[in-house]
């Protein structure tokens, strides 16, 4: 559960309180930012109708929602940092999408993007997150891992368990828009905080610009190293600029808690281990996240979060919890059953190959994780995965014994 | 990104040291020239259309370069970039164009009659001849910076100008986004179709935004004169044909360009040009004439001769494979073209190609007969 301390700080008018407890340099910077006239209207030479993108061959959430009227209304606006609508939608204009896979097609450049461009972002969020309406719904945040029940899987089936999310540092622009100095500041703030982790979370940071050949090889062998993004979905959004400046990987000595810095988000946080102890993975996840949050707050920083959207990340698809909890699980019989997809759907789960998104399954082993991100809490989503995977294993066992299986009723959303 | 770079003001909250890019592993002209002092001096500036220093250098920051090949590492977003950011671009231009000084004047000569010879390159060796250049339309920003609205107007003006051409230049425009499958097949078979840029040198500079909106290809019915619209420059103009009649290729090139320019001028949109930098294009390497005149020529013996590279250097020529830049030669056939762009005229550069290729073909013939070519090696041009 995000601390009540950060809730007090989450509104700008309480910066006075921050100045009492936080670093004065930080506060000075935050106050100074309000006076930078970066949000002055965008200079335009042609009317909106001449600039409206041709989206007739496009299939993404942005193209579905961006009418000429919305474009005309928003194209003159900029966030206080100077991020514009054209920048937000560029990735969706450049990547028409796929007939079967509907991508999001826009990104946020900063926290304020979700407000300034709400006329576009709200319908996109609604479409992507099953009808969640940011105007009149509240997103629950719950990082109390003790609530998880039956979180230990049968390890004859579950090979590994993993939970990931992202966190953004309030006050600094997001990867599509950040300057080199901002990106370096994100690195500094996070690396400072991580250096304060203790016990089983003690670890080390490996900067991409300075890693030795040996360190690089080890990180590749551990499957920890992330590479410069090649997907045009990311590069067209400007997230690979200045690579590899201020990018890096931190992990604990036990290699069970890992943080990526300045890849697609300020931070991506991953807790994982071999085997089926999802409860322990989630417990470490929550503990680590809370520790890091506490450490950055000591220096006057906080995570981007609000009641409507939960944790703020670059891609609207990752709002809310930003959480993907999943397992690698052996389901050779079930995966060949015609009802497999329907069962997953009703359990609010998705399957991926063992290489992650857009890969194929190998040897009947699947990556199974939660579909949803926004509108339910972390605890609820992890419990959904726990219950769902247990059900899938039961099905697999029944099929092994020659018994029939049942498609479960669909789970209700937005509990 | 187009219009009003308000984000640039926000960056000024940070010190120069905090924003200055890490160029320690870089090998390009921009990285050589960009000091913290220059960065500090130019970072709060913008051109009237809102293009900034960080926009200029982004491609060079993102692409550290190659130990052997020196890329430029910066682009212009508009005509004014070459003025506003001259403290960076002048040294880059000087380094790239053989010491060209800020006070030098560039000569433009598109009178094809000034070319001597060039109609008799031996077609047994010279398989094809080609001249290309680029042109930018005054009053609009360049591909790294232009908005969809601007790009569409550039396309519209280009179509108007090109479709009004007649005689040997009568032709047709094929917009990339409305091409039929049959048209696409034919353009590929003719080797005319250009594709969305994949080179990070171009994509990091923002030139592939909104693809394929307002991009297209025009060519004449004879398939000897071709114009690309809104690829790496507003216009890329190409004249070509099989065989060794470079004179005819150059005649058609000059004539076509002048016709097109007249039409644009009538609509008050001449080409970007000034007497210091010649024709203004997106990449500083294409300033001056923006001209690459070349041939595909069979030089299997000469190309393996120990002095081949030196001969090319002295003739002020460069070699490429038959797939263009960064490709390998196939079957001893090379693409040979002028190395220079700025500081000498179109006629002069094409003359170098004509004279140089003629000499190299004679050398090839001598080597075929088992004779030495040492006495033929030219002095440095």
Q: Short summary of the structure?
A:
The complex is a heterodimer of chains A (415) and B (381). Chain A is an alpha+beta fold and 415 residues long.
Give a short account of the largest sheet of chain B.
Answer: 8 strands, antiparallel
Taking the alpha carbons of the first and last residues of chain B, their distance comes to 42 Å
The largest beta-sheet of chain A arranges its strands as 2-3-4-5-1-8-10-9
| DSSP strand tally of chain A | 10
Question: How big a fraction of the residues of chain B is strand?
Answer: 5-15%
Tally of helical segments of chain B = 13
Q: What is CATH's topology name of the largest domain in chain A?
A: Creatine Kinase, Chain A, domain 2
Order of helices and strands of chain A: HHHHHHHHHEHEHHEEEHEEEHEEH
Strand content of chain A: 5-15%
CATH superfamily of the largest domain in chain B: Glutamine synthetase/guanido kinase, catalytic domain
What can be said about the biggest beta sheet of chain A?
8 strands, antiparallel
Kindly identify the CATH topology of the largest domain in chain B.
Answer: Creatine Kinase, Chain A, domain 2
Helix content of chain B: 25-40%
Which architecture of the largest domain in chain B per CATH? 2-Layer Sandwich
Keywords for this structure?
A: 415 residues; Transferase Creatine Kinase, Chain A, domain 1; 2 domains; 8-stranded antiparallel β-sheet; 15 helices; 35% helix; 13% strand; globular; B: 381 residues; alpha+beta; Creatine Kinase, Chain A, domain 2; two-stranded antiparallel sheet; 10 strands; 34% helix
């Amino acid at each position: 559960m995000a601390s009540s301390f950060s809730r007090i700080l989450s509104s700008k008018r309480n910066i006075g309180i921050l100045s009492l407890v936080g670093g004065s340099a930080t506060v000075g910077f935050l106050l100074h930012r309000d006076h930078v006239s970066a949000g002055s209207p965008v200079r335009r030479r042609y009317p909106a109708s001449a600039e409206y993108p041709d989206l007739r061959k496009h299939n993404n959430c942005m193209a579905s929602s961006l009418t000429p009227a919305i474009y005309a209304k928003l194209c003159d606006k900029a966030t206080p940092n100077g991020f514009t609508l054209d920048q937000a939608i560029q990735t969706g204009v450049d990547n028409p999408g796929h007939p079967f896979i509907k991508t999001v097609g826009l990104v946020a450049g900063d926290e304020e993007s979700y407000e300034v461009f709400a006329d576009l972002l709200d319908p996109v969020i609604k479409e992507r997150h099953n009808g969640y309406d940011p105007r009149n719904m509240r997103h629950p945040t719950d990082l109390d891992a003790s609530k998880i029940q039956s979180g230990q899987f049968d390890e004859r089936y579950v090979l590994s368990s993993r939970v990931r999310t992202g966190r953004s540092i309030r006050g600094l622009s997001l990867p599509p828009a950040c300057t080199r100095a901002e990106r370096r500041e994100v690195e500094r703030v996070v690396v400072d905080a991580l250096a304060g982790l203790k016990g089983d979370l003690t670890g080390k940071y490996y900067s991409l610009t300075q890693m030795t050949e040996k360190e690089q090889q080890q990180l590749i062998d551990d499957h920890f190293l992330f590479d410069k993004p090649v997907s045009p979905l990311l590069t067209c959004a400007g997230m690979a600029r200045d690579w590899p400046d201020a990018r890096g990987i931190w992990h604990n000595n036990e290699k069970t808690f890992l943080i990526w810095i300045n890849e697609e988000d300020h931070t991506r946080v991953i807790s994982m281990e071999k085997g089926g102890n999802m409860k322990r993975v989630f417990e470490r996840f929550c503990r680590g996240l809370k520790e890091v949050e506490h450490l950055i707050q000591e220096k006057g920083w906080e995570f981007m979060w609000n009641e409507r959207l939960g944790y703020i990340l670059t891609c609207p698809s990752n709002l809310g919890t930003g959480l993907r909890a999943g397992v690698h699980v052996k389901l050779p019989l079930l995966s060949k059953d015609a009802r497999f997809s329907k069962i997953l759907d009703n359990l609010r789960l998705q399957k991926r190959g063992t290489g992650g998104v857009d890969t194929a399954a190998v040897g009947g082993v699947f990556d199974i994780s939660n579909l949803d991100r926004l509108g339910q809490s972390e605890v609820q989503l992890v419990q959904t995965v726990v219950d769902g995977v247990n059900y899938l294993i039961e099905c697999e066992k029944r099929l092994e014994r020659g018994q029939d299986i049942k498609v479960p009723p669909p789970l209700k959303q937005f509990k | 990104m187009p219009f009003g770079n308000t984000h640039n003001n926000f960056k000024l909250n940070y010190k120069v040291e905090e924003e200055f890019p890490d160029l320690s592993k870089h090998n390009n002209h921009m990285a050589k020239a960009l000091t913290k002092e220059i960065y500090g001096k130019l970072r709060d500036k913008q051109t009237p259309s809102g293009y900034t220093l960080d926009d200029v250098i982004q491609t060079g920051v993102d692409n550290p370069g190659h130990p052997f090949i020196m890329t430029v590492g910066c682009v212009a977003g508009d005509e004014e970039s070459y003025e506003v950011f001259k403290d960076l671009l002048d040294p880059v231009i000087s380094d790239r164009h053989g010491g060209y000084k800020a006070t030098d004047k560039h000569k433009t000569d598109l009178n094809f009659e000034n070319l001597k010879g060039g109609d008799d390159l031996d077609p047994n060796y010279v398989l094809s001849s080609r001249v290309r250049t680029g042109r930018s339309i005054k009053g609009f920003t360049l591909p790294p910076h232009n908005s969809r609205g601007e790009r569409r107007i550039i396309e519209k003006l280009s179509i108007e100008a090109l479709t009004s051409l007649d005689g040997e230049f009568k032709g047709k425009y094929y917009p990339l986004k409305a091409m039929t499958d049959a048209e696409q097949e034919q353009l590929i078979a003719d080797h005319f179709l250009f594709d969305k840029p994949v080179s990070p040198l171009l994509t990091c500079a923002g030139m592939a935004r909104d693809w394929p909106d307002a991009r297209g290809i025009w060519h004449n019915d004879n398939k000897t004169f071709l114009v690309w619209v809104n690829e790496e420059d507003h216009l890329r103009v190409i004249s070509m044909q099989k065989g060794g009649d470079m004179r005819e290729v150059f005649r058609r090139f000059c004539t076509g360009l002048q016709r097109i320019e007249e039409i644009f001028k009538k609509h008050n949109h001449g080409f970007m040009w000034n007497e210091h930098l010649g024709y203004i294009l997106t990449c500083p390497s294409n300033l001056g004439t923006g001209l690459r005149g070349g041939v595909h020529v069979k030089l299997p013996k000469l190309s393996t001769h120990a002095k081949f590279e030196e001969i090319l250097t002295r003739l002020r020529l460069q070699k490429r494979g038959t797939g263009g830049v960064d490709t390998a030669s196939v079957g001893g056939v090379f693409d040979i073209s002028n190395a220079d762009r700025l500081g000498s005229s179109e006629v002069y550069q094409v003359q170098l190609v004509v004279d140089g290729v003629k000499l190299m073909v004679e050398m090839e013939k001598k080597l075929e007969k088992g004779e030495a070519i040492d006495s033929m090696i030219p002095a440095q041009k």
